[in-house]
């Protein structure tokens, strides 16, 4: 999986990869030549007393060393460029895939896990590509080249090198197997830790209010300790691995020197040859150690690659069929026998709902908590797709409608007001970057937020904290309403977004909204009768089914559920 991911994402940079490999080869050849040249300096220059040979070989060695250094530098630069570009592309693709997933798919994988996968996991793969491209390609060349050159110098002594390579390879392989298992547990633990930290940061007030600090600290501590345990196990393997390689290398050097001394004594080889063998051994040890280092991070990267692949292979269950169709009418909304069952749920949350709204109409959906109101709205913007029936916007099934047209047509104010860090103006221009200041103020006026923004230091330039944390719930709601009004969509969806407003502000806002959206199609979801009573039609939901539909007065007379809701809220029974 790791290999296929690397192959796919390095493909655009294969020129750079090939160049890095070629330069590494040049570096290796130059490096391998040095011990042979050195052996010649010793055996044919120093021992034979040939000063000219020493000078000539010395100059050649300087040139070869310079070539090795230059090629090494070039190969690192090319390899790093390719690996970092791979990281950037992979991160971007994971990010775009995450954006295309439905809410259920995000829920299934987990928000915090998706964050870890887009950042930490991509980084693991990037690191392996970086290490691999800058060092790994040289390893087989160094091992094979060293053995070939050693064989050309002395066959019996070469057997020491040949015996040394499998010992080191087995050591690396054994450590790698153990580490794969350990890293398989580390990444999910990082996910859990991220989730706990995220929950504790966003829910800090609740934790404090319920005096659950100690419990939350204990929950965090347990996962943190678990992560420490796994990391220590990985660290112990690293700690054992490198001394083991050094030990094997030391034993190899002793064997080369001992056997070399015997053969020098017998006059079969010169001292320079023994010296060259020791250097080859150092090269082999060095290259395998570098490879060990790469191989030891391979297990973690393999786990990360699997987790990344899971995201990339998740086919967004909202992908529209190609070609997407343009709408036939503007601003119409039609729900035809809509049923939706959440994945894994036994029963549908909404059953056979019919609803129609057109330009100039305001339709409201009311129902007690959990009756399916938000679920219904989610189906319009394809937060999920219907299980049965159809949702039509502009006269076309939303599953076939051009997604750009769908989002341009429908503007939603969500139940949970969310603002982004940045200025008030930047937040309001979220859906229309070209909106003028005058348009922003107009939208703020309708949303009853003009005074609020005027009183903020800097007005439209005032800074909002992430999530709108420096504003009250009602202030956030009014700004998110203004944000949608700035876009002037043909269809407005208001998802119970007036609940944090006091009655006077709500009444003023609804009156201003009626004027502002007079020509648009409006669907309002609410629990309060005061919010919906002026709608042209009110659809009453009970346990996901429509139990009444009509204007306020008619429903008071004909729909028991509506009457119950109204009386429980003391909401002007019979009053205009
Ligand atoms: N992500 C989900 N997975 C499974 N079931 C869900 C999910 N979201 C909502 N439900 C279930 O669907 C039903 C309808 O929920 P929905 O949020 O649409 O109700 P609602 O009428 O908007 O409620 P409220 O007024 O409290 O916001 C509920 O029974 C709820 O438990």
From TrEMBL:
SUPFAM superfamilies from the UniProt entry: ABC transporter transmembrane region, P-loop containing nucleoside triphosphate hydrolases
CC terms in the record's Gene Ontology section: plasma membrane
Occurrences of domain ABC transmembrane type-1 (ranges): 18-300
Keywords from the UniProt entry: ATP-binding, Cell membrane, Membrane, Nucleotide-binding, Transmembrane, Transmembrane helix, Transport
Protein name (database record): ABC transporter ATP-binding protein
Localization of this protein: Cell membrane
The UniProt record lists the keyword Iron-sulfur: no
Any one GO MF annotation of this record: ATP hydrolysis activity
Cited PANTHER family: ATP-BINDING CASSETTE SUB-FAMILY B MEMBER 10, MITOCHONDRIAL (PTHR43394:SF1), ATP-DEPENDENT PERMEASE MDL1, MITOCHONDRIAL (PTHR43394)
Chain segments annotated as coiled-coil in the UniProt record: none
Domain ABC transporter intervals: 333-568
């Amino acid at each position: 999986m790791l290999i296929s991911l690397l192959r796919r994402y390095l493909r655009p940079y294969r020129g750079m990869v090939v160049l890095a490999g070629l330069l590494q080869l040049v570096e290796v050849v130059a490096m391998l030549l040095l011990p042979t040249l050195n052996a010649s300096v010793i055996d044919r220059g120093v021992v034979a007393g040939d000063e000219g040979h020493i000078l000539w070989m010395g100059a050649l060695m300087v040139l070869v060393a310079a070539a090795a250094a230059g090629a090494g530098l070039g190969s690192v630069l090319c390899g790093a460029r390719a690996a970092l570009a791979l990281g950037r592309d992979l991160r971007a693709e994971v990010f775009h895939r995450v954006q295309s997933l439905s809410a259920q798919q995000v829920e299934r994988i987990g928000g915090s896990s998706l964050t870890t996968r887009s950042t930490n996991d991509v980084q693991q793969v990037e690191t392996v590509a970086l290490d691999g491209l800058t060092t790994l390609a040289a390893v087989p060349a160094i091992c094979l080249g060293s053995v070939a050159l050693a064989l050309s110098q002395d066959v019996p002594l070469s057997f020491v090198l040949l015996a040394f390579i499998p010992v080191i390879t087995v050591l690396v392989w054994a450590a790698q197997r153990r580490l794969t298992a350990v890293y398989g547990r580390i990444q999910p633990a990082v996910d859990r830790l991220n989730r706990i930290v995220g929950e504790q940061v966003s829910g800090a007030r609740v934790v404090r209010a319920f005096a659950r600090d100690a419990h939350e600290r204990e929950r965090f501590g347990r996962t943190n300790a678990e992560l420490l345990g796994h990391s220590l196990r990985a660290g112990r393997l690293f700690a054992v691995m490198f001394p083991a390689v050094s030990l094997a290398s030391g034993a190899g050097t002793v064997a080369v020197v001992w056997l070399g001394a015997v053969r020098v004594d017998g006059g079969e080889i010169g001292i320079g040859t023994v010296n060259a063998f020791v250097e080859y051994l150092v090269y082999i040890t060095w290259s395998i150690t570098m490879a060990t280092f790469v191989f030891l991070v391979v297990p973690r990267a393999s786990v990360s690659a699997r987790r990344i692949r899971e995201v990339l292979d998740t086919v967004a269950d909202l992908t529209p069929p190609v070609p997407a169709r343009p709408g036939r009418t503007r601003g119409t909304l039609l729900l035809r026998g809509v049923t939706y069952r959440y994945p894994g749920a036994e029963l549908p949350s909404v059953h056979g709902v019919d609803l129609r709204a057109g330009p100039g109409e305001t339709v409201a959906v009311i129902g007690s908590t959990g009756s399916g109101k938000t679920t219904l709205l989610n189906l319009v913007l394809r937060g999920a797709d219907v299980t049965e029936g159809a949702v039509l916007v502009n006269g076309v099934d939303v599953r076939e409608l051009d997604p750009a047209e769908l989002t341009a047509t429908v503007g939603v104010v969500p139940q949970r007001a969310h603002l982004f860090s940045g200025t008030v103006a930047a937040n309001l221009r979220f859906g229309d970057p070209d909106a003028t200041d005058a348009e922003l103020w107009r939208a703020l006026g309708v949303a009853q937020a003009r005074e609020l923004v005027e009183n903020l230091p800097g007005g439209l330039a005032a800074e909002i904290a992430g999530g709108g944390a420096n504003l009250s719930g009602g202030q956030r709601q009014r700004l998110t309403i203004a944000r949608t009004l700035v876009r002037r969509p043909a269809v407005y969806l208001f998802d119970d977004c007036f609940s944090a407003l006091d009655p006077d502000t709500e009444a003023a806002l609804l009156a201003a909204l009626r004027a502002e959206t007079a020509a648009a199609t409006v669907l309002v979801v609410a629990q309060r009768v005061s919010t919906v009573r002026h709608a042209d039609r009110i659809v009453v939901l009970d346990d996901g089914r429509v139990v009444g539909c009509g204007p306020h007065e008619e429903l008071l007379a004909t729909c028991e559920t509506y009457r119950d809701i109204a009386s429980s809220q003391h909401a002007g029974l019979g009053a205009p």
